[in-house]
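Re: zinc ion structure - here you go.
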Amino acid sequence: MNQDKGPERWANDLSILLTQAYGPNRFPVDVSKLARDYSQQVFPEEPITRVRPRGFEGFEGALTPKPDGSGEWGIGYADSLRSKGRVNFTIAHEFGHYLLHRKKYPNGFQCRPEDMVWWDSEYNRVEAEANRFAAGLLMPLNDFRTQIPANEKADLDMLGGCAERYEVSLTAAILRWLTYTQKRAILVVSREGFILWARSSEPAFKSGAFIKVAGLPPREIPAASPVAGSPGAVGIAELKELSRGTWLDEPVVEHSLISERYDLSISLLTLQASAPAAGIGDEVTDDLVDILARPMFSR
Ligand SMILES: [Zn+2]
């Protein structure tokens, strides 16, 4: 029964309980307390009794059964995690494994940083489910939509405001926004001038606007990007309009954050409302361009 509930359903049910208990203006979620209180009430035979920092190396979070066979569980997060936002997301991710996966995985989980990023991965379905639970619990869509409506543009200042409201990392807030926005936008995360990964909103992806990284040689960020142009700079850069051919085969507006602390850069690319080639294959587009251009050249 309960074990068959999916991640969104779990997150939604808990969100309803929290709203009943604390009212609609109840953020951020105290996920450490919730994990302990809820598990002790609902699963008293196998409660989460400890949530604490640990000296992990190579992974960020863990869900572990107590070795004495008591049925108790513990959640650990790496003591090297320096932001409260990443700690919260990690605890919520492990709480997700507890609710969704502990029966199938009685030895628990050890989760690496890269496990926290993919929300719809087919080949890492279990990790993606834990992330979708964490996102749904910490940033419920009905509340996020009141902060940034689906048809509204967002910039890093607005998304940073949401990251503060929900006490999550900026990256997690942007990924959440990308799941429902009707705008065409792409998040690019880079380190030292090279793209680590990128993620498109659905309207962007469907129109062919995405940046492929997996399985390809390391790709540099374009020289015109504010992230490439200002080594040593830290903070949110000015909005920058970049012409077609810089990032994509269309112009973009880039809003960037260069973070010294994590040695990472975040670029939010906002595209025009509709793609120049939305829904049309490249060949057809070329034909159209040819047809439109021909009369001018035939003089
Ligand atoms: Zn995990």
